[in-house]
Amino acid sequence: MAEQPRPSRVEKVLVIGAGVSGLTTALELARVRENDKPRYTVQVVAERPADQTVSVIAGALWEFPPAVCGQHGNQLSIMRSKRWSVESYKEFQKLAQVRGNGVHMAPTNFYFGVKIEDDWLEHTKMRELKKLSEDEEIQGFRRMTEEDLKKVPASFGVKDGYQLQVPAVDTPIYTRWLREQLKQQSNVTITYGKRITDRLAPQSAKIRADWGVDAIVNCTGMGAAELAGASMVPLRGALVRVPVARFPSRPKTAYAISKTAHQQDMVFIVPRETHLILGGLVEPSEYDTHIGKDYQPIKEMFDRNKRFAPELLKDVNLDDTDVDVIAGLRPYRVENVCVEKEYGFNIVHNYGHGGSGFSLSYGCAREAIGLLESMEGPSFRVVDLRPAAVHQHPDTYADLETPDFTTAQLDGQEVSVEQPIYH
Ligand SMILES: Cc1cc2nc3c(=O)[nH]c(=O)nc-3n(C[C@H](O)[C@H](O)[C@H](O)COP(=O)(O)OP(=O)(O)OC[C@H]3O[C@@H](n4cnc5c(N)ncnc54)[C@H](O)[C@@H]3O)c2cc1C
Questions:
Q1: Where is each FAD dependent oxidoreductase domain found (predicted)?
Q2: Mind listing the domains of the chain with CATH numbers?
């Protein structure tokens, strides 16, 4: 595959994919202005509109990495994800102040089966969340008291917990809102029903000529297996939806218990404008989304949530006709979430968000735009890869491990780095 010349300037961009990643990237691109004019012309192409993607299935409760569903071990990747999630939190927090977009801030109780101090990962995560809350980057961190914990049925073995104000997204309303925002931008066109086939890189020049663009952003979720040759693994999930009209007053608090990501022991209860969402299913490498009320793990998931909140769900049964089940595949990439440039082919990737596509959406979109900018011109430049959060919160990140690499690919060339790129 011959490398292609870098564009002297990226002005016209094709975004492939219209789930939350594609729509957010397209909207953020469309909003970039230079000299009082839109900086980019954006075309979105997707096989399916958002209301037919996994993005509309998502529980869409914001989460701070490492993610429960689709956890990565790579520390550099987790650090980047943390920055993306905080950036997204701030954007959702602003959106929650405006009506009509499906975003609201929900007090969310996170429970744990051990004392948090006894679990290195959860302890680190909690300390970071507390610090972010003290710095007012996120809102409402509160450690639970013994009295709070006693309210959870004893059979769940809950030993600890904290509460946060967390963005909760009503996905049908929010993805419709994203599409409407895009329609209002004069510099955006959207084409649905078109599938791009085969690896993007070898046909990048042709695709760019056909669409009249300088660069491509790949936001295809599971589709990246074909378009980027990515190691995608579906993490099948399902949600039970109960109309909020069933409750005397609209439920306000969200609840999450996850002792392990792969044993089916999760409790996940999220109130939305129209429905109360019950979830917690994670089944790796299962592709079939035609699962419903008769599927045993869904019955168990419903029963678990009902045992957790017996008072709230006392009159709700899985076979009630107004209670439905939806299922989808979280697009998990084995190595990490992929927000990367494909060197020499004028492609930026933004896929593989697993169970965190909403939580990371704005941060990833903005980083993808930064990567488009860094494609321009012939010069070789060394970029500072240290996430801004490392500079801003040195104490918070002090005990994270130093990544173990001594070479890096920068703009297609292998360079040696005598020191790790961040420490
Ligand atoms: C049960 C469940 C619960 C979840 N809960 C949460 C949660 O609480 N918080 C959270 O942040 N996330 C959650 N998620 C994860 C979230 O849904 C995903 O991470 C996110 O929707 C991924 O969005 P995406 O835009 O990258 O991919 P998708 O929504 O899959 O969109 C991909 C787009 O690319 C298009 N496409 C693919 N291949 C091609 C091709 N070859 N040619 C043209 N177009 C193509 C598709 O048609 C589609 O438009 C959950 C998911 C599930 C299933």
A1: 12-368
A2: 12-53+174-230+335-378 (3.40.50.720), 106-167+232-333 (3.30.9.10)
